[in-house]
């Protein structure tokens, strides 16, 4: 289990991580989601003992990363944002080198062979790292993290810079490793996290602003729905009519996607149900309503809303989010 308590990191005057706390259970796959510069790599560097926090503690299986670094680090395999590869070594030389560096006690050849099989790099075993594709280099990076059989894998943006096919391969590999490891994975791309992680932590400007499953996050926001309508009527007049309906906050024109029709987005004011009025008012003008659907917020939109809220409000953090959720129940 990983326990992170009140972590803060200051670079000079800049507070890169601000009072972050969370726990990760054994076997969990946790996603760290946040825009560039949010503080993901800084937190990961602290978790793995590469950076010391300004304030706060990290415990891996009860071992404090600063007080018992050897016991804590032994349990962690780390793939940093820029994998520490030696380009003039072959894959074999490199993995042997890391094995010695980590002072691993497992039988050398079978252990390394097993890892190579797992991450599928046997076919490039004797090649120089500098001649490998980015996808293979990333696999070699994951292989070095696996040396010593750590229970915990910390992977910083493991799919960045890969092509779509390589992304899927690495994603499958992480899913596979997740069956036998605790994994923390960071990304600035929601779909990456969503594809692999059960639970996600959203970080913005060094603050933790959400910590939940994708399913719960969607549920928490599900009442905020707007409507999309397809109407056979003149765009400007329909827009004016829709805007005048009681309970409608804003209407925006989305364009024409079908001949002689126009699409609109209708945002009701809090919890107002405007569907009947929309139907009746359009019928009065003889502008047929061809489609009306409720827009569930996508996780992408939820992510944007949360990061926007925290960009606008300096004090926004996980506690505001928690009270927001409780208010809804
Ligand atoms: P992320 O990984 O989410 O993109 P980082 O943890 O790399 O974010 O960076 C968080 C913030 O800390 C950024 O504003 C970045 O510019 C700053 N930062 C990161 N490393 C350093 C450093 N060594 N010195 C000064 N500022 C840093
Ligand atoms: Mg980073």
Explain how this protein is built.
With 329 residues, the chain is of the alpha/beta class. It is 38% helix and 27% strand. It contains twelve helices and 14 strands. It has helices at 40-47, 69-74, 91-101, 108-118, 134-146, 164-178, 190-196, 214-221, 235-244, 275-284, 299-312, 318-328; strands spanning 2-11, 14-24, 29-33, 55-60, 63-64, 76-79, 152-156, 182-187, 199-204, 207-213, 226-231, 248-255, 262-268, 289-295. A six-stranded mixed beta sheet has the order 6-7-8-3-9-10, with helices on both faces. Strands 2-1-4-5 form a four-stranded antiparallel beta sheet. It is elongated, with a radius of gyration of 25 Å. The model has no long low-confidence stretch (mean pLDDT 92).
SSE blueprint and pairings:
Layout: E1 2-11, E2 14-24, E3 29-33, H1 40-47, E4 55-60, E5 63-64, H2 69-74, E6 76-79, H3 91-101, H4 108-118, H5 134-146, E7 152-156, H6 164-178, E8 182-187, H7 190-196, E9 199-204, E10 207-213, H8 214-221, E11 226-231, H9 235-244, E12 248-255, E13 262-268, H10 275-284, E14 289-295, H11 299-312, H12 318-328
Parallel strand pairs: 3-8, 3-9, 6-7, 7-8
Antiparallel strand pairs: 1-2, 1-4, 4-5, 9-10, 11-13, 11-14, 12-13
Bound molecules: adenosine-5'-diphosphate (ADP) and magnesium ion.
